[in-house]
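Milestone M4 deliverable, item 7.
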Amino acid sequence: MVKSSYIVLLITLLLAGCGRIGNIVNVMEEPPFGIYQDSLNDTRMRSALHEVTVADTSSWKADILVKHRYDSLADTADKALWVWFSADDGLSDDADEFVSFMQQELPRHGLAAEAFCLPEIEQDVAMVRHLAFDSLMQDINEVLPRLDYNLSKAYVKYVTGMRYGFMQPAKLLNRLYQKTDGMTGVTSYAHLYDYETAAPNYDEALGALSSDNRMEHLRASLPANIPLYSALQEQLTSTTDGEKRWKVLTNMERCRWRIRHPATDERRVMVNIPSQQLWAISSDTMLTMNVAVGAWDTKTPLLCSEISYIQVNPEWSLPPKIAASDFTRHAGDSAWFARHRYFAVHRGTGDTINIAHMGGESFKNAAIRFVQRGGQGNALGRIVFRFSNSFSIYLHDTNSPGVFSRDRRTVSHGCVRVERPYDLAIFLLPDISEWTRDCLRISMDMQPMTERGMRWLASHRNEQRPYRLLTYHKISPRVPIYIVYYTMYPNPQTGVMETFPDIYGYDKPVYARIQSLFR
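Output delivered:
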């Protein structure tokens, strides 16, 4: 032993004389796992990993894919199996940084530490840093693979969930309610959600996991709809009420869905179904009004589109399902059809059919189109706002304005009835001339505001109405419309967070899908 120490001292002095003392210091540094360095056994670690993955019964897609990654690499000699440690470099500093990040961020999002294995990760990181394996009666060859696996699971689940949502809305909402077709008798699921939604990119997360910039990728994992999400976070930190917390958390999840969210500086129209309100917003305008939305059996779908044109005094071509359900009981009542200004047209020939001679089953005939003439009394009112969608729905005026004074306004077949259609038209057409505005007013049976409009109306008072000074106008540029479902949302005028009734019952099934993630 003395001889060995003498040799080491001699070598040290010789190297110092050659300017190489730094190298020998590095040689003599303690290895990353200290006295346990020689105990590291890759075969035993892979065996311990196998036991961990076999015991993992998580049904979360992120967890399943991480498990598959480890299982597929464990049977090979690939050193890329271990992500967070190596025998040469020890446990990565990223592990400590990740733990610190999650300790801070999970409470801010209402997420439970247990859902991301954080308590176990914290314990194992501390054990490795303090080399406390023996004192805790733990085997380093079991601790390291368990820690590596749990860190990777937590990482992938967090970054994909925060970037894309922890559940996929289309899979839930489009298989939530069933309806029976009145014409065919076929029962199917109602299509309620039509947003183009990006699916979680697990390959991106798994790639980032093994990259040098994984922490940057982690920190950048925030919802796309930041202003609303931040406002909801404030609500989360200010309440301990259980019911309010789960409502906040449900709406936070909606913000995480990777869809087209309204931009803060965007000229746009929003319809929030739970609030039964429309908000038309631009940099210099804030227009709010009540709306009526789809009834329980004919819910207004959630979608994003662009309003492209308006029609004034439109005819209403009834969807076959509405004609079949609403007209059958009036068969033979020609006065009722005349009073409501309905007529029937054969789709193939274009011939008008005498509706008074039609029996009940005729109203289910797909070859016949039923139309209501435009003007006073038309169900669409005096103006309709068109946008492309898969449901043949639109915004429109109504011939029953009394609906807007009700607290619950779920009455339509799916379209959205607006309380102030003229004001909405002017919002969409801010640059039209005063004369064009008067043409719109006169066509809607409103009082003109210009002298030219007043003169025109005075000289045409005896003509048949509706006046058709304006029947169509293109919206250019098109204005985005968002039909959304938030049961908590800041008032666009005051910024104060408001809570709305869950009129379609979407909150509970959304929350149920992600409940296990929350504290």
